[in-house]
Amino acid sequence: MDNDGFNYPDRPNDLDAFWMPFTANKGFKNAPRLMAGAKDMHYFTPDGRKILDGTAGLWCSNAGHGREKIAEAIKKQADRMDFAPNFQLGHPAAFELANRLVEIMPGDLNHVFFTNSGSESADTALKIALAYHNVCGNGSKTRLIGRERGYHGTNFGGTSVGGMVKNRMFFGGLLGGVDHIRHTHDIEHNAFSKGEPAWGEHLADDLERLVQLHDASTIAAVMVEPVAGSTGVLVPPRGYLKRLREICTKHNILLIFDEVITGFGRLGTGFAVDFFGVEPDIVTTAKGLTNATVPMGAVFCKKKIYDAFLENTKAGIELFHGYTYSGHPLAAVAGIATLDIYKEEGLFERAAELSSYWEDGLYSLKGGNHVIDLRNLGIMAGIELEPRPQAPTARAMESFHKCFDAGLLVRVTGDIIALSPPLIVSKSQIDEIFDTIGNVLKTVD
Fold it and tell me: What percent of the chain lies above the pLDDT cut of 90?
């Protein structure tokens, strides 16, 4: 028993009952890597080793770990009222959090629907888009458009609109009436671009191809990540998102930004909406909303969308959708405390100030062993490695294991190392991240 009171497994068979998500279960349970504690920028293994968090957990602990202000808010709320339903009832914290959120979201995105994860946010946004066109008298607009290599969680809607092959291939036809525009990743034109690539704005015009194929009268919404995170940090070309907005406006198609990763400071602004100066109709968020302490997501909608439901419903429920835990009291107070920390410590501004130092650290790896591309924006980075012949993904996974053994947590997707540390990261820790990766890559065949 560890000194924190928990029993930790000491042999692989103790791990068998948990079917782990997005994990090679056989491999992990033969050689487990466990984390038993976390504080600020580090995780701690059961044997006390420090692991520098280069990924903010899973893109989500933006303010670092073990924040006492958040933990205390959760405890106080649990003591006062652990749960309250939000169907035909309400509790103050959910309303306060919604108001706080719309204050920092730019433009006309001033209504919030609470969910419990990025996956639920994606499916909620898609359902709202379909229902919106329906209540506006455009019931033929039922088609949903995603993008190749997109990731929008793992529920049926998000998986269908998403474009990561392995996430789709085992689950049959998924939702019907879905199509995809091409992705923006092109190493031939954009390798080693610092920030937004100069080439590729025209790729947004692929949406016009689908309009010609399906007709705009059938297309309800287009969902994209402003920066595609889980597929390997694909930064949009300059002007791309603006062009996508113009096409959607032209054809009365709702534009949905999936900001589950880019939201809450990752780009050095509150949201990618601020960073790119492009206002979609719907924004999905989660992860950094509560600093990952209690699961929660939030879907932001433009006023015109919210008003359409209220104005076109004579009486009763306007949107037949929701979750038992929508606006959960513990999550709501965790979100309020998290927003306080972001504001009090200026973490969004800190990320902006560190972004050039972060970029310099990343580019110290240029010319490194197997490195074929580097990508960055804000405090995000992707390091693409040349695939090992006959063994795609193996090189990055070996790098992941060696980084962990060297005291650094990174993410891998395909043959890409992805980085997104907490926004409290110091310059010396940025140096440590890239020095460790550079040393590890020297040892990888």
Answer: 95
The number of distinct structural domains making up the chain is 2
Distance CA 330, CA 85 (A): 12
Distance CA 176, CA 243 (A): 27
pLDDT digits (tens, 9 = 90+) for 214-263: 999 999 999 999 999 999 999 999 999 999 999 999 999 999 999 999 99
Examine the domain organization and report whether 75 and 198 are in the same domain.
yes
Q: Any residues with CB less than 8 A from the CB of 123 and at least 6 apart, and which?
A: 153, 155, 156, 157, 158
Asked, for residue 2, whether it belongs to a domain, the answer is no
Q: Where residue 128 sits, what CATH number does that domain have? A: 3.40.640.10
> pLDDT tens, 30-48?
999 999 999 999 999 999 9
Question: What is the per-residue pLDDT for 9?
Answer: 54
Whether the predicted pLDDT of 11 surpasses 70: no
In 3-state terms, what secondary structure has residue 375? Answer: strand
Number of H helices, E strands in the chain: 16, 15
Q: Say how many residues make up the chain.
A: 445
% of the chain beyond a pLDDT of 70 = 97
Going edge to edge, which strands form the sheet with 37-39? 37-39, 42-44, 50-53, 408-409
Q: Which domain holds residue 86?
A: 70-344
Query: By three-state DSSP, how is residue 444 classified?
Result: coil
| Residue 389 DSSP code | T
SS3 assignment, position 185: coil
Regarding pTM above 0.90, the answer is yes
The three-state secondary structure class of 276 is helix
Query: Which pLDDT tens digit goes with each residue over 344-365?
Result: 999 999 999 999 999 999 999 9
CATH code of 357's domain: 3.90.1150.10
Phi, psi values for residue 291, rounded to 5°: 55, 25
Question: Are the beta carbons of 102 and 300 closer than 8 angstroms?
Answer: yes
Amino acid identity of 4? D
Burial of 360 (0-12, 13-18, 19+ CB in 10 A): middle
Token duo for residue 102: 């719309």
132 and 256 share one domain:
yes
